[in-house]
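Anyone have tokens for Dynein light chain? Sequence:
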Amino acid sequence: MLEGKAVIDQTDMLQTMQQYALDLAAKALDFFDVTEPTEIARFIKKEFDRTYGPGWQCIVGTDFGSFVTHCSGCFIYFCIGSLAILLFRGSAGPEAEAGQVSALETVEA
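Reply: yep, here.
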């Protein structure tokens, strides 16, 4: 795992979901090397899909920009060392069908 504590930059998730995301990231970094961001992202996304239902998207890397539409209460952007992790439930989630979506731009990773 990367040295250092996870630092949450932006989120609108409940505290329990935030902690689950951080725990999964730590677990993923135990399983995969930091040079395997796609595998880390796949692991986190599949676990969130399994736990909270389908529609989750995960982006992992050291340098990326994004502009996403996400369901309310389903967004977190955090860093562990130099690795940035963006996790959100996209418009496929049930909240989007009810019209509860937000747009959030993340520029720095």
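DSSP finds three helices and six strands in the chain.
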